[in-house]
Structure formats: structure tokens, C-alpha cells
Amino acid sequence: MLGDVYRACQELTLDQRANVVANAELYARSELLSDSGGHDWWHVDRVRRMATWIGSQEAANLFLVEVSALLHDISDFKVTGNEDSGRLAVLEFCYRNSLVDVIGNFVSDIVARVSFKGEGVEDEPLSPEGRCVRDADRLDAIGAIGVARVFAFGGSVGRPLWSPEGLPEEHRDRESYRSSKSTSLDHFTEKLHLVEARLETDAGKRIGRSRSGFVRDFEERFKTEWLSPFES
Ligand code: ADP
Ligand code: NI
Asked: Taking the model in full, what pTM does it have?
């Protein structure tokens, strides 16, 4: 099965592959340019660069990694409210670009499985290429950029920075994760602190360790400034 998709890629000329990557980039740029909630084009560009870098250490097929990374947030569930819209948009893209079904199915499978769906929802198994994209997407949710994205997203949907009176929520399914009413800082417990343990590639884990350390330090400092302002 994996062999089939690698063979199908080898049958494409270098020019054909470059063309598909360029079209995927155009598609992602046009669809995501105006998002201010942390899912903008530059998020996709960072994920593409990180995923191909991880892929080069994991001996993954870099064409499949790059195309999947570029398309991973297209027609996302959180924007369309439709479970299947991302997968369908990717299948259409592959069809428009004359890619054979085995490639279309492979890439759309990755896109459908990348997203984080809440603490209680287990990650679905992915191909080696998919693991590179999922790790890259998760790494962009932690570190300094991840912290910035939490408050950008939180602000865009009217969430307060934090409340010392509330508690983080535990999300057993995708719906409760999506409809969470908790604060931006609570989202650290609901997602950011869980990311490191869910990384699957060696290269991703290495970077995750340092970025997670930063997130923990940030949270501690934030709470100290809030709760013991005269000591910070
Ligand atoms: P993805 O689809 O990339 O797996 P999410 O949709 O869960 O990720 O999140 C996209 C970005 O928005 C991430 O940076 C995430 O940390 C942030 N985010 C998601 N939910 C919340 C929330 N309830 N409060 C604050 N930030 C959030
Ligand atoms: Ni993403």
C-alpha cells in the first residue's frame, strides 16, 4: 500500500511535482491569508518548513509531506463545521491537479487525521509522512509562537486571558473541545501541556522538549505576576 503511493510519486516528473507544490501553496495562501485566530497562512508555512525538515530526518517522502502540510488546514472542521470538508477539498485539489487516486487518498487521509481533538480523544494512526505533518502542526502550538497563537485565538473568539476562579476543562470528545468556554490560559492545560507526550518522531520530540519547557515557564511566570504581583 505504502509502496503504491511511493511508486505513483516516482512516476511524476520533477516539474509536475513542483507544479503541485506551487498550486497547493497558492490554494493555502488564498484560503487562509485573512485568518487572525492562529490558523493563518504563516502557520501553514511554518508547518510546511518544520514538516519537511522532520521528514528529511525520518527518510519520509518529502513531496507527500510538503503537499499534505500545505493542505492540512484547508476547509478545516473548525471553520466549516463539517467533519469531512477538509478531506473532500483535498480530494478535489488532487483531482484538479491530475494526481492519481492513490496519492489523493493518501494525502486526504493525512489531512483528516492531523488535527488535535481534545485530551480524551486518541490520535489515529498515521503514515510516516502524516506523522511528520502532525508533529510539525503540534510543535507550532507550543513554544513562544504557540503561546502567541493561544492568545490570538482566544481573543478572536472573546475568551478572557485567564480567571483565577475557573478550572481547566477535560475534553472527552471533539465537540466539547471545540465548544470549550474556558480561558486562554486554561487552554495550556487542555492542550499545550499534552503536546509533548503525543509527538511521534525523534526530531519532533527533541524540539518539543525545549518548547514545552518554555510553555511551562511562561505559565508559571504568568500566574506569579497575577497572584503574587509584588514578588515577580
Ligand atoms: P489544530 O487544528 O492545529 O490541531 P486547534 O484547532 O486545536 O489546532 O488550535 C489552533 C490554535 O488555536 C492552536 O494554537 C491552539 O492552541 C489554539 N486554540 C485552540 N483552542 C483554543 C482555546 N480554547 N483557547 C485558546 N486557544 C485555543
Ligand atoms: Ni494547523
From this structure: 0.92
